[in-house]
Amino acid sequence: MLADSDAEFDFNPMISPHREDPHLFYRAARERPVTVSPSMGAYMVSRYADIKTVLDDPDTFSSAAALPKIYNNPPEVVAELEAGNVPETAMVVNEDEPRHKQMRALFDAGVSGARVRALLPLMKQRAHELVDGFTGHSADLVSGYAFPYVQTVINAVIGFPAEDGELIQGWTDDLTVLWNPFTPVEDRIASARRVGDYTRYLQEQIDDRRASPRDDMISRLVHGGGGFPGVSDDYIHNIIRGAARVAGFDTTRDAITATVFMALRNPEVAALIAQDPVRTITKVTEEALRHDAPNRALGRITTREVELGGTVLPQGAVLLLLFGAANRDETVFPHPDAVDLNRPNVHDHLAFGKGLHACPGAPLARAEIRVALQTLFASLPGLRLAEDYEPTYIASYFFRGLESLRVRW
Q1: Averaged pLDDT for residues 4-11
Q2: In contact, 296 and 396? CB cutoff 8 Å
Q3: By C-alpha distance, which of 26, 10, 6, 9 is closest to 400?
């Protein structure tokens, strides 16, 4: 049973004040034992050392609860999913060993170093197309740049036709609605209905690659590789629509805009980019990933009773690992709220996780951020924030990202 003080200690990133600044909660959470948030329905793990303990012990802290199941929705939502024959299996991020090894190997192949290098011309082409399409001397870098840029890249990685980008994005948004327990049930019903259309579309893509393999993630999952066989169609649906398309889009979009925002609100950083863009962009990218991690949290579930962060957790306890909180843990990162491009341990941040489930798309994301920033700062001299710009953040269960980023040059 929760003490009264614990019952009042809540976190809800969908509403004020935590939507605007989750660090209000994160700072307080790091100062007390691991505690349940009633709104989130899980124990909040906020200290760097505690999160590392969890990540380093997958036997005790299972990944089965890393992301929620869409079939855990209310019955009327589930009825729509069943009517659309929407499959659900574990995704890569939800798998424990030994199954995780095969899933991860096939996923890694789709975002390998060679694949990232092969995508660099597409990244540069798309970034220049978008910048060249700006009219006047102002733009919103969320809707007008990061969104379409990352959409193009992740669809190419997966193997989705470029002309279907908006259609796929709508379905991807539907999936995040189904994952979000704060979304009204009526909205989840409508999204579940549309995910049935997504299922039929994905199956057509899978069947096409079975007959005619290509150099894309769908083909790799269908046919296997690296000593591992392909996986079932149901697994492919879940890996593509969730681990690849949602995680590969939202987090990178938000990381790009957070990095640009950091550079533009700190004039000394923008000046350094102008002087030495290659080195400075690499530094500001890592500091932005630490300072404003785009992936808010992933879940775990305990397989036995265990003590963590001053709290005894029962078997079956659900945890949320708050990566953004750990990345500003003052015991690991001195002066954590400050921007320091020469922070010696910046690569210890947890924006991409650590250990068994470290994000396989991290090299791709870093490449996308680098190309996006290099193109912007080289093409738009005098790039700066719009005079009346005030940052606002999306209402999101999983992601931390700007709603807009209005700039001038």
Answers
A1: 64
A2: yes
A3: 26
CB distance 332 to 339 below 8 Å: no
Q: Which of 2-6, 62-66, 287-291, 370-374 shows the lowest per-residue confidence on average (mean pLDDT)?
A: 2-6
Rounded CA-CA distance 216/316 in Å is 38
- Token pair recorded at residue 315: 């078997």
Helix orientation angle between 165-179 and 247-265, rounded to the nearest 10 degrees: 90
Which residues, including other chains, have CB under 8 Å from residue 136's CB and lie 6 or more apart?
none
Determine phi and psi for 390, rounding to 5 degrees: -130, 125
Type and span of the H or E element at 139: strand 138-140
- The answer to whether residue 104 scores a pLDDT higher than 90 is no
Q: Are strands 318-322 and 42-45 parallel, antiparallel or unpaired?
A: parallel
Q: CB–CB of 296/324 below 8 Å?
A: yes
Residue 76 near residue 193, CB atoms below 8 Å: no
SS3 call for 144: helix
For residues 285 and 96, give the distance between their C-alpha atoms in angstroms, rounded to a whole number: 30
Q: Which amino acid is at 241?
A: R
C-beta separation of 403 from 253 below 8 A: no
Round to the nearest angstrom and report the end-to-end CA distance of the chain: 56
Q: What average pLDDT does the chain have?
A: 93
Task: Write the DSSP assignment of 289-308 as a string of letters.
Answer: HHHT-SB-EEEEEESS-EEE
231-248 CB burial, b ≥16 within 10 A, e <16: bebebbbbbbbbbbbbbb
d(CA 17, CA 173): 24
For the beta carbon of residue 128, count every other beta carbon within 10 angstroms. Answer: 14
Distance CA(243)–CA(248), nearest Å, equals 7
**Residues 319, 299 contacting (CB under 8 angstroms):** yes
Q: What is the pLDDT of residues 132-190, one digit of tens each?
A: 999 999 999 999 999 999 999 999 999 999 999 999 999 999 999 999 989 999 999 99
Structure tokens at 297: 């949290």
pLDDT score, position 105? 78
Q: Is 16 exposed, middle or buried (0-12, 13-18, 19+ CB in 10 A)?
A: exposed
Residue 104 tokens read as 């991860």
Overall size of the chain counted in residues: 409
